[in-house]
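Final paragraph of the annual report: two paired records, presented back to back.
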Amino acid sequence: MASDAPQTTSHESKEAQRYFSATQWQLVWWRFRRNKLALAGGLVLLIMATLGIFAEFFAPYGQTTRNAKYLLGPPQVLRFWNQDGLSVRPFVPGSVTERDPVTLRAIPKIDPSVRRYLQFFVKGEPYKLLGLFRSDIHFIGVDEGTIHLFGTDDLGRDVFSRTLFATRTSLSIGVMGVLIAFVLALIIGGVAGYFGGWLDYLIQRLTEIVRVIPVIPLYMGLAAAFPQEWSTQQVYFAMTLILGLVGWPTLARRIRGQLLSLRNEDYVVAARISGATAGRIIGRHLLPAFASYIIVDLVISFPYTILSETALSFVGLGLRPPAVSWGIMLQASQNIRAIVQAPWLFIPALFVVLAVLSFTLMGDGLRDAADPYQVSG
């Protein structure tokens, strides 16, 4: 028993040395990875981002490809057995079209007696991956016929494929909008917090004006001001710019508060006396002192930006077809027919909830990991 004591003491001393010699970012990572929910949220966001970036590869079809024989068709869920018995290979059931005896409308239905085996890396529609590389290889497909894992909409477009493209659009708008707001917040909040005085007073009044602007009427006016001849790309960049221009006040005030509390510290005064410029002091000495908090604020801001884009596109004030986003896809579900006959059109809403929840969990984990008074074990 006595021989184990020196080993335990040596191990504890190595751990203590490792802890006290670690950088701030290492400490944040060590604390963050102990939070399993935060890690799960980050993993989900990584998967969603990967699916969105490489949507052309992972989607069986293009975002506008139609299947005229399967209009508003139900999802073809993967199966391993049917009336013919068990199958080692996953397959999707077939589909048949029946005539409604009352309305005489053609209604697609699942045919469980048919097996269409799932295949990977199959040839399909040609596309340009990332806009650079031409290919016709898709991640999944079937040996014959079509596959619609999430069903189709009223035009026969594959909901699964469109959801992947919508994931890229909605997440990229959230990222771009938050980055624009982040740059504005750094500049405006940094100037106000470092210089103070009358300049700080004017910036705070400007911040209050931006904060009290009613968002919905603002978006309604701007949406009406968008020229109808604008392309999808122009509307996309205008949308991200608007979300960024109205999203900076909260972060700017937090940065201002941090700078006000740090600008008279000894190392800041020493840098000022040595002749360092205001920009260098703010960028090299002040902002890195609380960079972890800035990152946490950024992560927490993503859900609000994504929800803003989704809500605006849902009510027709954001992106316009043929662009595809979560909000645009949910537009097709705001009727009684979709609720009763095609509940699978609400699947994009699950992606919205999953993305917002993942961002929230990861943001909470980063906030706890960035706490300098938390004891690391």
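The closing record of the year follows.
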Amino acid sequence: MTPVEAEIRRRIEADGPVPVATLMQLANAHYYATRDPFGKAGDFITAPEISQVFGELIGLWCAAVWSVMGRPNPIMLVELGPGRGTLMADALRALKIAPAFRAALHVHLVETSPLLRAAQERTLKDSGVPVTWHHNISQLPKGPALFIANEFFDALPVHHYVRRDKGWHERVVGIGPDGALAFGLSPHRVPDRIVPASHEHAAPDSISETSPDSLRIAAALGERIAGQGGAALIVDYGYDKPGSGETLQALRGHAFVDALQEPGESDLTAHVDFVSLADAARLGGAAAYGPVPQRDFLLGLGILERSAMLMRQATLEQALEIESGTARLTDDKPTGMGTLFKVLALSQRNLPPPPGFTPKNT
């Protein structure tokens, strides 16, 4: 029995079945605190691990937005959930062509895992810019900031609500007849206001998946950007139209597993509701652009041109790796990264649409 399962069973025994969000919060807190899950030897691979061009383009995107902001000095470059620090390292390397921006910025990393903080410190120790770590956004100092959140929101806890004849009931985790953890349904009806208005007329047995933590953070980003200046770039897999249904999944060793099997030993994620994120940020006071497919965003920033330049300077093996990585990031199949992943931008209302977006994306 994993430590997470033991804690869930203790809570069930004390207070009854727990929400799906509690399972996800406990499991991911333990998971990320006890391992480096990235890369071929881990459980999954993120875009920065696939191609250096991904982080380079995001770094240059930040420089372009900073210039439009009026080149404030100092400026914070903040990454939420920075993994090994690979994206930030690639971004800072690309920013050598923007020395004024590099000289003005101070990197801030929002990371709760001591193990991953250590990995980030090793990756960025020779970056040549000051780096500070924080446990949450509220610890950041005041001032204009550019935020990067790549595969951050998908790991935040979600609640599941199931429609019954007389209203909505929360999906919970309890103990099944065989003594194992099992999904069930709370007998208590939840207030209709908890479920998004778009699900008001959902059919019986429909599942509404919501992430209050995600909306709270998006609203905080919107409020901060509106009040102190800056922008945010959110890249994740998810959907760009309201819909119902659950997307909770567990990944271990690059394969899907049962979310209740050894909780805390696999990565639990859910698709990001970009429409709700954008709405929350707008309520906070920021402008929101997108989401747009990752493929369109990267092509608009020049991923093909940058990759071609790198390939001309590479060995055959390196060139094939660059070509493969670019193709994977821009894959336009329904389940390809270029389509499944979306990009959302937030910014001050007085700024023009950031690179990769147009007024039509607002």
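Residues 32-157+210-294+332-361 form a domain with the Rossmann fold fold (CATH 3.40.50.150). This concludes the annual technical report; the extension proposal builds directly on these records.
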